[in-house]
Design goal:
Layout: H1 3-12, E1 16-17, E2 20-21, H2 22-37, H3 45-65, H4 67-72, H5 75-89, H6 95-105, H7 110-124, H8 128-135, H9 139-159, H10 164-176, H11 180-195, H12 199-230, H13 255-275, H14 283-297, H15 302-331, H16 334-339, H17 343-366, H18 371-383, H19 386-397, H20 403-424
Antiparallel strand pairs: 1-2
């Protein structure tokens, strides 16, 4: 082969991270880390976004290239979360930097900003017939996932001597509650009102189950993705039901459309928060209902729909790993997870999450869903940590288009869990 031919082959095989040649990306990484360790990383959005994107793409690339991690442990998604959490846990990341990213995620609203674009684009990008057909039977596998999680987890806890009802209250229901904000905190207040003790006492009991359940949900999502590749008849690859002929075409959008989509997502979130004054639901749940009505009615002009799709595509492709780094730093406490790592506790949590997954998948198939999609949306959608968990699970499953259905499980399902908790807590 000629020298020119060899050079051409090397060019084709060039390794890139985030579409940047690896050598140049590593230069960017080193400059970013130098700025962080010397205290020169700008405060606020500039420094937080730069570090989250660079670390996220690096962890994501390593995780997606590492065989066992890639195939069975969530790949880049799980490494982005736990790589960032490990940096905080081991004090590799300065506290000032971790605090800045935490502020950006929470006070700065980046998490809501990301999810707003994701929900808006994914729902408006679904054919209205699909929304009607899926929505009419979605509650069935969701109820099945809750039932099997309670049975599996409760029996496992009983076998280990923790008590059937107590295991359900302290482990299973917190796992299924949609995270801390709409699950753990209200549950702790409910337990305090009925049983006494300060809510903080119950928070300390619930947090390990929520964190560990989220970890198992991410891992199982990755495993389900691998199963789907080996057994294609079990999955729609992001489509909930067979026979819907949903075309998920890769479309190139222009910058103007992205701007329209950005405004649309933010406006729908603001409207949903205003409606939340009258509707006792989480703003994301209101968003899903409102967007579904708008999509089914067909009243939105094509420019709005196309803009929402364009912004969704931009957000998913450019900020998913960055967000997962933020989740690792802000919401993933390795101390809590490590303290919960007794063999019995791990088995009970794993059993509950597996139970939810199996129940959702099996019953979902009976009502016409693909079992893997049903297991991800109504099983793992119930067992992860709400919005942050939804992103992590779907990234591991490589099915981000399922976000609206996971959000239904995380938000509306949380109300069901609180109702069940009010029943079980009075049985003690």
């Amino acid at each position: 082969m000629s020298q020119d031919g060899k050079a051409l082959d090397l060019h084709k095989q060039k390794i890139t991270i985030f579409h940047i040649p690896i050598v140049w990306f590593l230069v960017i990484l080193l400059i970013t880390l130098f700025a962080m360790y010397t205290g020169n990383l700008p405060a606020g959005m500039v420094g937080a976004m730069l570090l989250m994107m660079v670390l996220g793409e690096f962890f994501g690339w390593v995780g997606d290239k590492t065989p066992i991690v890639r195939s069975y442990l969530g790949g880049g998604a799980i490494l982005s979360i736990f790589g960032a959490a490990f940096m905080v846990h081991m004090n590799i990341m300065p506290k000032e930097t971790a605090g800045m990213i935490t502020d950006f995620m929470q006070s700065g609203g980046f998490l809501n900003f990301y999810i707003a674009g994701l929900i808006t684009g994914s729902i408006l990008g679904i054919d209205s017939k699909i929304l009607l057909k899926v929505g009419s039977r979605f509650a069935v596998p969701l109820l099945a996932s809750v039932t099997t999680a309670i049975l599996f987890g409760g029996i496992a806890g009983f076998i280990f001597g923790n008590g059937f009802i107590q295991t359900i209250l302290v482990i299973v229901l917190p796992i299924m509650g949609g995270g801390m904000g709409i699950g753990g905190v209200p549950l702790s207040q409910l337990y305090s009102d009925v049983l006494g003790n300060d809510p903080s006492y119950y928070i300390s009991l619930l947090v390990p189950a929520i964190a560990l359940g989220n970890l198992f949900a991410i891992v199982i999502a990755s495993i389900l993705n691998a199963i789907g590749k080996k057994h294609p008849h079990l999955t729609g690859n992001g489509v909930m039901m067979p026979g819907l002929h949903f075309e998920n075409k890769k479309t190139t959008y222009n910058i103007n459309q992205m701007g329209v989509g950005l405004i649309t997502g933010l406006l729908i979130l603001v409207i949903s928060q205003m409606l939340g004054v009258f509707i006792p639901l989480h703003p994301f749940a209101v968003m899903i209902i409102l967007l579904s009505i708008l999509r089914i009615s067909g009243i939105l002009p094509p420019m709005i729909v196309d803009g929402a799709k364009a912004w969704y595509q931009f957000v998913v492709e450019n900020w998913t790993f960055a967000l997962l780094v933020g989740i690792g730093i802000t919401f993933t406490d390795l101390n809590v997870i490590i303290q919960a790592l007794t063999l019995e506790y791990i088995i009970v949590v794993a059993t509950a999450v597996i139970g939810a997954t199996l129940g959702a998948g099996l019953i979902g198939k009976l009502v016409g869903f693909y079992p893997i999609e049903a297991a991800i949306t109504t099983g793992l959608g119930m067992t992860n940590m709400g919005g942050t968990g939804d992103v992590s699970v779907l990234a591991a499953a490589k099915r981000m288009e399922l976000m609206p259905f996971c959000q239904i499980s995380s938000t509306l399902g949380a109300a069901l869990i609180l109702f069940l908790a009010s029943i079980f807590v009075n049985l003690l």
